[in-house]
């Protein structure tokens, strides 16, 4: 009995310690560069975890979540510039608008299966910025984008604020993802991924469940987009609706292991760090070499761990500590 | 319990179910047999809502479920298994059954659902560790799992699609006993598609014979086995009482 | 205001480019069909075909049409190698291949794209051959010789592909594997060999499509992604797996893009295509032509 209790304690102590250390990092006055990396890193962790609710758990691989990110960003930017509302509040409105949009688009799009769904969401991600670009210039700044006022504080302090906020988002979305995975909702989503028709025959209303997952992940991504907008203080359709973002979060989640809640975290951390490391490792040589190596890493890892890193690790260290309920996954 | 009237199901030009009518009364164990391609699984798929018929109607417990979506029919009280067993491979045995309980009955509490699942797994005689992955099971155990999962939805009517295929003699005996247990302890009506005629003979009080999507014959197992039309449909006496 | 002539001109242009994209899509659906792999690197390999053509012309003065003799074997072998050394080992380890295949092939896409970028730099490359700058009139429309060559090449390739799949023993084996991999194995078909051949054919058609496209347009190493988007659109419209579907889808997309650009700013095209896509998918969730 005591052995098990020690085990459980460790499982929480370690991540908690890591998070605390990360949160306290700014107190050590590091170079502002590291804070910036932190912001981006935590952002991708949050994005990947949020995406995974629909992409990994349900198996509906969306290549268009960048659309929701951008919507959140624009909502925050517009509300700040027009009305002076604080982005730390309006980001939630950004999330809600993204969620509403996801609700409307989701209903038809989720009727598609497999590759068709992925392609349709990719097109969604490409079409939305066009729409936004063509909204009245007075509202969204047309092609030039919108410039937001900077916070009237020291840059280090401001960077620290974003660092902590993104850390909170990263931890929050990951905990949410974990909670969902172990809940009735999560089990239903997994059933849909396993075999949607069979799931229906045991009472799973897949239409509603999928839509809930899609909308909820859109909400989260919208919120994150809103915070990011204020961090950049500049939004335009090219930056916040970048298809590379949509693709990157899919890669991160699958690379890390999309059937788990830890997978997207690991994938986001590893791939973002690799990206940053490669950029600084080859200062003279062009970005092409970095991206080539990035691609090589993707290929090699997936070849040997197709279900993602986490899945591979979980299978390697399969030890049986009998869980309480049907849901003990972590 | 279940009534189908004049069901018509087409696939493109192919008429799979042709003006088919049938009844299954409460607490019966009814068998559905017929040569390959006669429409048995199509009928099951239509009943459970995976297919929508072009014509006719299906009523269960007095409600018209013809146009209902599968999940709604399941929640009304229909459970089914599949000819090619379809457990959720990447989930544990317990999770497989628990999902049935959670979504088939509106149960919200996972702990309760797990407890119910454990009970049902005992009921069907599963000897495995609850946390074994569904993918690790043998065929017979996968069939048990699928039955357990269907039972977890607390159905009033259970559709079994060729559960006896591929089982050895002992397993067949176990399965027959299980079917009676299902009817007698749980009060569930059973409607089963089968090719293994020993099973039909030993469990069913009534048998419906399908051929080319139409009802060819109906009656007690003995009557049906001796019906010349049925024998002919199976091309030369594959129907023999063992 | 665009005149009638200009509109016809645009429409003609749409048909030309449409068939090139149709060929690209047909090849894309092959790898999906036999292995359920979504090959995101497909357009990158088409670019390889384009660059082979450019290089051969520039360094050895080889006529672009002769390049076909180089493109076919090189890309065919690349296809086989990709299947044998990359896809097959991954599929053996994976329970489900489609999800991982996207990361796998995207990595491959990045590798090929950036290799091309390192070798050829990021400039626009145009194919200036003996066929360039010749045009003739087809009724009211002025048509470039290069466009016609591209069209003929694409149509012939599509026809050969169609004949291969429906008229030859190997092709029928491919279709069997497509329908039911297990069943095909049980029928005695050497599934692995057939799959490798299919990959070879898929990549070869990609290379030819790359040749067609460079006859008509300039390329940079980074154009692969936009080609891929067209492939996706056509795949949805035409359904993954029907040659005829790909051809029709290609024409539709080509026509919309070019005719559209006459009336609507290019930026809106994405939107129009997307809305069209949604409508088609709501009505026919597996595309216009089911496979």
Per DSSP E runs of 2 or more residues, the count of β-strands of chain C stands at 2
What fold name stands as the CATH topology of chain C? ABC transporter involved in vitamin B12 uptake, BtuC
Broad structural category of chain C? mainly alpha
Unreliable segments of 5+ consecutive residues of chain A: 320-330
- Class of secondary structure makeup of chain A: mainly alpha
The fraction of residues in strands of chain C falls at: under 5%
- β-strand amount of chain A: under 5%
The averaged pLDDT of chain A comes out at 86
The largest pleated sheet of chain A is described as: 2 strands, antiparallel
Give a brief rundown of this model:
The complex is a heterotrimer of chains A (330), B (242) and C (291). Chain B has 9 helices and 10 strands.
Descriptive report:
The complex is a heterotrimer of chains A (330), B (242) and C (291). Chain A is mostly helical and 330 residues long. Helix content of chain A is 75%, strand content 1%. Chain A has 15 helices and 2 strands. Chain A has a two-stranded antiparallel sheet. Chain A starts with a helix and ends in a 14-residue tail after the last helix. In chain A, 54% of the residues are buried. Mean pLDDT of chain A is 86; it is low at 320-330. Chain B is an alpha/beta fold. Chain B has 2 domains: 1-69 and 155-242, Rossmann fold; 78-153, no CATH class. Chain B has helices at residues 40-47, 70-76, 93-105, 110-124, 139-152, 169-186, 197-203, 221-226, 228-233; strands at residues 2-11, 14-24, 29-33, 55-60, 63-64, 78-80, 157-161, 189-193, 206-211, 214-219. In chain B, strand 1 and strand 2 form a beta hairpin. In chain B, helix 3 (93-105) crosses helix 4, helix 3 (93-105) runs parallel beside helix 5 (139-152) and helix 4 (110-124) packs across helix 5. The longest helix of chain B has 18 residues, at 169-186. Chain B is globular. With 291 residues, chain C is mainly alpha-helical. Chain C is 77% helix and 3% strand. Chain C contains 11 helices and 2 strands. Chain C has a two-stranded antiparallel sheet with strand order 1-2. In chain C, helix 1 packs antiparallel against helix 8. The radius of gyration of chain C is 19 Å and the shape is globular. The termini of chain C are far apart. Chains in contact: A-B, A-C. At the A-B interface, helix 8 and helix 9 of A face helix 2, helix 3, helix 4 and helix 5 of B.
């Amino acid at each position: 009995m005591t052995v098990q209790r020690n085990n459980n304690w460790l499982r929480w102590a370690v991540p908690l310690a890591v998070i605390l250390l990360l949160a306290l990092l700014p107190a050590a006055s590091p170079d502002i560069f590291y804070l910036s990396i932190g912001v981006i890193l935590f952002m991708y962790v949050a994005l990947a975890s949020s995406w995974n609710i629909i992409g990994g758990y349900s198996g509906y691989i969306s290549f268009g979540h960048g659309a929701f990110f951008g919507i959140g960003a624009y909502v925050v930017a517009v509300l700040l510039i027009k009305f002076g509302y604080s982005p730390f509040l309006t980001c939630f409105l950004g999330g809600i608008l993204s969620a509403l949009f996801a609700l409307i688009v989701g209903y038809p799009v989720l009727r598609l299966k497999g590759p068709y769904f992925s392609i349709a969401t990719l097109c969604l991600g490409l079409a939305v910025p066009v729409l936004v670009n063509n909204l009245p210039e007075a509202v969204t700044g047309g092609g030039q984008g919108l410039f937001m006022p900077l916070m009237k504080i020291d840059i280090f302090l401001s960077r620290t604020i974003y660092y902590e906020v993104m850390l909170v988002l990263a931890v929050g979305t990951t905990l949410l993802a974990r909670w969902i995975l172990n809940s009735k909702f999560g089990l239903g989503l997994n059933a849909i991924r396993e075999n949607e028709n069979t799931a229906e025959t045991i009472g799973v209303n897949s239409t509603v469940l999928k839509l809930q997952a899609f909308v909820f992940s859109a909400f989260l991504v919208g919120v994150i987009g809103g915070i990011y907008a204020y961090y950049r203080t500049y939004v335009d359709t090219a930056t916040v609706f970048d298809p590379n973002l949509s693709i990157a979060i899919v890669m991160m989640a699958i690379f890390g292991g999309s059937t788990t809640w830890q997978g997207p975290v690991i994938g986001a951390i590893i791939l973002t760090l690799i990206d940053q490391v490669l950029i600084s490792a080859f200062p003279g040589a062009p970005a092409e070499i970095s991206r080539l190596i990035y691609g090589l890493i993707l290929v090699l890892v997936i070849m040997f761990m197709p279900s993602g890193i986490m899945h591979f690790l979980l299978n390697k260290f399969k030890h049986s500590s009998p869980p309480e309920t049907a849901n003990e996954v972590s | 319990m279940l009534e189908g009237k004049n069901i018509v199901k087409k696939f493109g030009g192919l008429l799979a179910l042709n003006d088919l009518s049938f009844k299954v009364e409460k607490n019966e164990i009814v068998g559905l047999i017929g040569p390959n391609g006669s429409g048995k699984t199509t009928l099951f798929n239509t009943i459970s809502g995976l297919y929508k018929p072009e014509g006719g109607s299906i009523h269960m417990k007095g409600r018209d479920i013809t146009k209902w979506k599968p999940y709604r029919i399941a929640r009304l009280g229909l459970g089914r298994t599949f000819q090619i067993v379809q457990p959720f491979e990447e989930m544990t045995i317990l999770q497989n059954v628990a999902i049935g309980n959670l979504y088939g009955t509106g149960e919200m509490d996972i702990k309760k659902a797990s407890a119910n699942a454990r009970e049902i797994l005992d009921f069907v005689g599963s000897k495995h560790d609850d946390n074994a992955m569904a993918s690790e099971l043998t065929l017979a155990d996968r069939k048990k799992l699928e039955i357990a999962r269907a039972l977890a939805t607390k159905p009033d009517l259970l559709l079994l699609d060729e559960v006896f295929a591929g089982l050895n003699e002992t397993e067949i005996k176990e399965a027959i006993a299980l079917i009676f247990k299902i009817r007698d302890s749980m009060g569930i009506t059973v409607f089963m598609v089968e090719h293994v005629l020993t099973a039909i003979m030993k469990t069913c009080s009534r048998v419906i014979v399908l051929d080319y999507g139409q009802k060819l014959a109906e009656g007690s197992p003995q009557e049906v086995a001796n019906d010349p039309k049925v024998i002919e449909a199976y091309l030369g006496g594959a129907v023999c009482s063992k | 205001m665009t005149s009638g002539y200009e509109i016809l001109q645009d429409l003609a242009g749409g048909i030309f480019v449409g068939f090139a994209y149709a060929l690209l899509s047909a090849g894309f659906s092959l790898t999906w069909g036999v292995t359920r792999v979504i090959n995101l690197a497909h357009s990158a390999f088409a670019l390889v075909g384009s660059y082979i053509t450019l290089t051969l012309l520039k360094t050895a003065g080889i006529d672009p049409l002769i390049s076909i003799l180089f493109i076919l074997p090189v890309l065919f072998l690349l296809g086989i190698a990709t299947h044998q050394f990359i896809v097959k080992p991954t599929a053996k380890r994976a329970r489900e291949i489609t999800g991982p295949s996207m990361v796998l092939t995207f990595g491959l896409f990045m590798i090929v794209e950036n290799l091309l970028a390192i070798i050829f730099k990021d400039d626009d490359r145009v194919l200036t051959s003996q066929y360039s700058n010749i045009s003739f009139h087809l009724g009211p429309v002025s048509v470039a010789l290069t466009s016609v060559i591209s069209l003929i090449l694409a149509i012939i390739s599509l026809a050969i592909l169609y004949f291969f799949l429906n008229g030859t023993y190997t092709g029928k084996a491919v279709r069997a594997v497509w329908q039911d991999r297990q069943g095909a194995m049980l029928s005695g078909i050497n599934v692995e060999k057939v799959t490798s051949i299919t990959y070879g054919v898929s990549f070869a058609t990609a290379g030819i499509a790359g040749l067609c496209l460079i006859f008509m347009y300039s390329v940079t190493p980074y154009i692969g992604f936009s080609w891929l988007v067209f492939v996706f659109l056509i795949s949805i419209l035409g359904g993954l797996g029907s040659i005829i579907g790909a051809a029709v889808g290609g024409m539709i997309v080509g026509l919309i893009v070019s005719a559209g650009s006459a009336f609507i700013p290019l930026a809106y095209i994405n939107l129009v295509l997307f809305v069209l896509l949604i409508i088609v998918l709501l009505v026919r969730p597996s595309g216009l032509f089911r496979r």
